[in-house]
Amino acid sequence: MSTDVSGMIECRSGARLWGFGDEDCVWEAGIGLFLLNRGNAYDGLACLFGVRNSFGFRPVAEGRGFPDDASDGLRGEFAGCGGSRDVYGATWLTWAELDSADWEETDASGTRTRASAAGFGTGWGRVWGVMRILSEVHGAENVRLVVWFH
Hints:
With about 150 residues, the chain is α+β, with helices and mostly antiparallel strands. The protein has helices at about 15-20, 35, 40-50, 70-80, 95-100, 115-120, 125-140; strands spanning about 5-10, 30, 90-95, 145-150.
């Protein structure tokens, strides 16, 4: 049985302008993974999210759940995939986490790096490019990728 990933990039655009305590500092839907056509390589899912991790990677963001403060757009996408009754493994990570990740860290065999599995040179590179650009505008902690699996 195969595993597919769905998700969306969100931005908290008001955080830089008004601060986290402001009522307008909320997450807003950005772009869905489907539009970025990032592929479905299991080594990438393993090193990023701990899903199908027969490789023995130390995941960047495993099992955090669906964020309570998700945007309405993200909630709609999640519900469109069946929500918590039809998907599993929801988690999220910020651009700040990705930017500071050790991309040379290897899997359990010591042969595959995080960069070779999910770095800029892989299908995930388009996702990282969008997140990087959005972080230049909104700040690294204010851009996140939320994913779930089915």
